[in-house]
Specification:
This protein folds into 2 domains: about 1-205, 2-enoyl-CoA Hydratase, Chain A, domain 1 (Alpha-Beta Complex), CATH 3.90.226; about 210-255, Lyase 2-enoyl-coa Hydratase, Chain  A, domain 2 (Orthogonal Bundle). The strands form 2 sheets. A 7-stranded mixed sheet has the order 1-2-3-4-6-8-11, with helices on both faces. A 4-stranded mixed sheet has the order 5-7-9-10. The longest helix is centred in the middle third of the chain and has 19 residues, at about 80-100. By secondary structure, the chain is of the alpha/beta class. It has helices spanning about 35-50, 70-75, 80-100, 115-120, 150-155, 160-170, 175-180, 190-205, 210-220, 225-240, 245-255; strands at about 1-5, 10-15, 15-20, 55-60, 65, 105-110, 110-115, 125-130, 135, 170-175, 185. It binds coenzyme A (COA). Coenzyme A binds near residues 30 and 70.
Amino acid sequence: MTETSFQTLTLNIAGQTAEITINRPEKLNALSGQVLEDLRQAVSQIRENANLRAAIITGSGEKAFVAGADIAELSRLSGHEEGTAFAGNGQDVFNLIESSPRPFIAAVNGFALGGGCELALACHIRVCSENARFGQPEVNLGIIPGYGGTQRLTRVVGRSYAADLILTGRMIGAQEALAQGLVSRVLPPAELMAAAREIATAIAGKAPLAITSAIEAITMGIEEPIESGLDREAQLFGRLVTTSDFREGTGAFLEKRQAKFAGE
Ligand code: COA
């Protein structure tokens, strides 16, 4: 295992999976400018490391995943341009996660509020502990979600429920998040990381080009009319049948053995 320490987070790489742990528990892992910069670096390293197959993002401590943008920093914003750039910076970092060829799994271990909820939404899969709390409380501060929340929450849970959360700023628990499709699994706190690692390891055993294509088909497809999304799906499918991993996967099934994928 290799561990790289950034000012505000750690990046652990074990085998083919990476783990980012945001490490500001005394401020409930709030996203300061430094956390965003460190996230940008860590996510870029994961994107560039072709040996990796999946990554997990979590928060340190037992209380919070990420309790939002750092309100002390936020409170100093004034001009229109400055505010726009502030939102754009967070959006850029989260876009790097969403557009990664390798999937990111959010392991939400407590409060995921504001930018924390938006960070989880930029990940491809979200699992949470029973004590997780989600919300977009920006309207309490006189702003709206600025790191993608108005767009990604709406795409994940639908317009009506997204408006309920964003307009009221209310917090919801893990079971409601599960019922609304905001997360796909809820675990006892002690089992959360093991479950996230199990998902990462399962993905790591699949054909890497198929995983990357599936992410592209899902993420891009939802942005376009169904005809284009279906065309994209067919094109990606067509490309995959030319890969040696396709020969290996189908051959292994027919020969009743475990497939070994090379990512080619
Ligand atoms: N930005 C900066 N600091 C934050 C923070 C944030 N988003 N969320 C929590 N903190 C800090 C608190 O100021 C406090 O710091 P202090 O000990 O130096 O005073 C510390 O983290 C612990 O938080 P505290 O509020 O004492 O914990 P709590 O258990 O009473 O409440 C929350 C937990 C999550 C309900 C509460 O911290 C909260 O509402 N946070 C802000 C959530 C939010 O609005 N996020 C969206 C921002 S756009």
